[in-house]
Amino acid sequence: MTDLNHTINDYLSRSSVLLLTPSHEPPDNSACIDLLTRDPPGETNVLSATLSASPAERLSLWKREAGSELPKRATIIDGRRNVTDAQLPTSEAGSISVRGLPEDADLYDVCLAIASQLGAWKDTDATTVACLHSVSTLLTTYGTDRVISLITGLNDLCERLDVIAHHHVDPSAHDEETLATLRPLYDTVIEHTPDDGWIPTEREATTTEPSFRSTTTPPGGAAKTDPDRPETVPMRHSFDTVLDLLSPPRRRTLLYNLKNQPTTEIPIDRLVEEIHDIERAIPIRDSSPREEIRIELLHNHLPMLQEAGIVRYDADSETVHYTSNQGLESFLRYVETVELG
Question: Which residue from 54, 286, 289, 291 puts its CA 20 to 30 A from 146's CA?
Answer without folding.
Answer: 54
